[in-house]
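Chapter review: from sequence to fold.
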Amino acid sequence: MGIIFANSKLAKARIMYESLVLSKKKDNSQTLLVPEFIELSTQDALYLNEITPILQTKGFSIRPFGKSSFLIEAYPVALGGIALDECIKEIVKNRDFDESEDPARFLRKLAELSLISSSKSLPKNSEEALYLLRELSKCHEATFCPAGKPIFSTMSLEEIRNTYTS
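The token string follows.
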């Protein structure tokens, strides 16, 4: 007996990753009513132009809008309500997106980056925590995040006693 802890950030990464894998199999783009504007440095803009075809296969629709500016017109539904400009800036900053190596790696990185730019934090109440666990239970692999870290950890009663008694 003891306590089981769930790392909500890692759980969200797993849920996001599996959603991206499923959305890859069908056209699941969300078109924005108003395109989101993003401005980059000249070097970053060149790189984004280079990887735009890869991003389009994942459900993004990004087009140039000036010398180093872009309009994000659509994004993969699986990414939910993320800060798109921050996510794209992280993709460009990392400069290690090469889907030709391993398509699953690209999706893992995209899932991780979407969490970095996500405005959502820890579950605020038990209903949100239960919802997260229900969504996680639908995943093919619900015990590890896409990077291979365990989502759950345990603490035995003995460990609790040793930790919290003097």
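Two observations follow directly from the output. Strands lie at 2-6, 29-39, 61-64, 69-76, 152-156. The chain has six helices and five strands.
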